[in-house]
Amino acid sequence: MAKPAKKSASKATARASSPTRKKATSKAAVRKSKSSKVARATKAKAAKTTPRKAAAKKKRTTQKRATRKVAAKRPRSSKKAAAEQAESTDRLLHLESALAARMVGKEDAISKLARVIRVRRTDLGFRPERPDGSFLLVGPSGVGKNEVAHALSEVLYGTDERVTSIDLGEIGEEEDLSKLGATMIPGDSTRYVPGMLTAPVREDPSTIILLRGLERAHIAFQRLLLSVLERGTIEDMLGPVNFGGAVVITTMQLSREDLGTSEIGFNRSSRTAAEIRREQLERFVMPDLLDAFNEVIELPPLTIPEVRQIARYKVDKVLQRMQEQRTAIDVSSSVYDELITERLCNKAGAKFLNRTLEERLFNPLSRYLLTHQGSKRISVGVDAGAIVIAQMEPPEED
To answer: With the CA atoms of 354, 150, 251 and 299 taken in that order, what torsion angle do they form, in degrees rounded to the nearest 10?
Structure first.
């Protein structure tokens, strides 16, 4: 009797659930009906579209795809690249005049620098693997040997900060050469110390390399430098480094007496100044390395008017920045006459020029600006040997 009871219960459950099934089936049918209506409407709309409209739509789609393909192949910044190329070309064409604004009293050096760099940058050099220019600058302290590198950077790249400066006094021993290339950290095969010379060139292949004080470097460094100038490449633990796009400027601090050229014109020697200079330089530099430089340039001492011109150039750069901040400052010529004296120039040329300008001009000027905030027109002059700063009267209106 128990079994028939169970069957009756299962039949009752099936009958109770049948309305739910019917309801779910009816919902599915409604959804199917709606989708079929949408499909019929889409089909009807497509049927109404004329062949002419369909062809036009297809043509527009094809044109869009073609445009996307061309845009993908064409560099996105073609206009920007063209503008940069035009600016670079203009700089190369006017190298002399641009350098002369900052390199005062160095017409011969400017001419040689511009000639070499123009030839190299237009890919007309006989040895394309060599640097874009290599120069040895020789002269006493304060003649602007280091300034040449920064001036060249400003003219070529619009900033004087693209200079890798290395003090060769740190390469006084042969083992110090390891500092120039990447070296592995002892005990850790995954970490290394970047090279003083190779790391900046890897990061920026067109950097200007300033090697200061060749006379203080170990003789082994000259052999390394010869490899850079002749082959255009050296290798460290990270692989080869290409110097083909760099400009290498090496300096030596030697007086005219050291070079033996101070008495030219006052003795009866049959040798020319160039021959005497070459003979004296070979006391400090390997002959092969001298020949590897594109130019060996001697920078003569600066005259007082030339140092004053350099000072005016430096101050004008600062005043231009102040003008952009809506503060006009006028510095009279008497200020430069007072600051740039024969004693200063005979001591070290323009070596201490920045320090002199900061101490005697910018220091009192900064105090004045802090105590007279809101001053927009300021004049700087001299009275009884002292710097005098005053508020300028506003210009009269017409």
So the answer is: -70
Domain count within the chain: 2
Over the stretch 276-291, which tens digit does the pLDDT of each residue have? 888 889 999 999 999 9
Do 206 and 320 fall within a single domain? no
Say if CB 153 and CB 147 are below 8 A apart: no
* H or E segment to which residue 135 belongs: strand 133-139
How many other C-beta atoms can be found within 10 angstroms of the C-beta atom of residue 65? 10
74 has a pLDDT exceeding 60: no
Cβ proximity of 319 and 348 under 8 Å: no
For residues 4 and 198, what is the distance between their CA atoms, to the nearest angstrom?
96
Q: Are 377 and 388 in contact (CB under 8 A)?
A: no
d(CA 211, CA 166): 5
Q: Which of 16-20, 298-302, 393-397 is predicted least confidently?
A: 16-20
| Cα dihedral sign, 182-148-291-277 | negative
Higher pLDDT, 219 or 3: 219
pLDDT for the residue 40:
66
> Per DSSP, what are the bridge partners of residue 94?
none
- Does residue 171 lie in a domain region? yes
d(CA 21, CA 28): 11
Q: Which amino acid is at 312?
A: R
Residue finishing a domain among 298, 326, 359:
298
Residue 220 three-state SS = helix
Q: Are 88 and 157 in contact (CB under 8 A)?
A: no
Burial profile 298-332: b = 16 or more Cβ within 10 angstroms, e = fewer: bbebbeeebbbbbbbeebeeebeeeeeeeeebebe
Distance CA 210, CA 197 (A): 10
- Where in the sequence is the domain holding 359, given as residue range(s)? 304-391
Residue recorded with tokens 């739509």 = 57
Quick check: is 334 in a domain?
A: yes
Cα–Cα–Cα angle for 230, 233, 239, nearest 5°? 160
Residue 164 pairs in a beta bridge with: 209
Distance CA 279, CA 289 (A): 14
Residue 213: helix, strand or coil by DSSP?
coil
Higher pLDDT: 319 or 5? It is 319
Q: What is the CA radius of gyration of the chain?
A: 38
CA 34 to chain centroid, in Å, comes to: 66
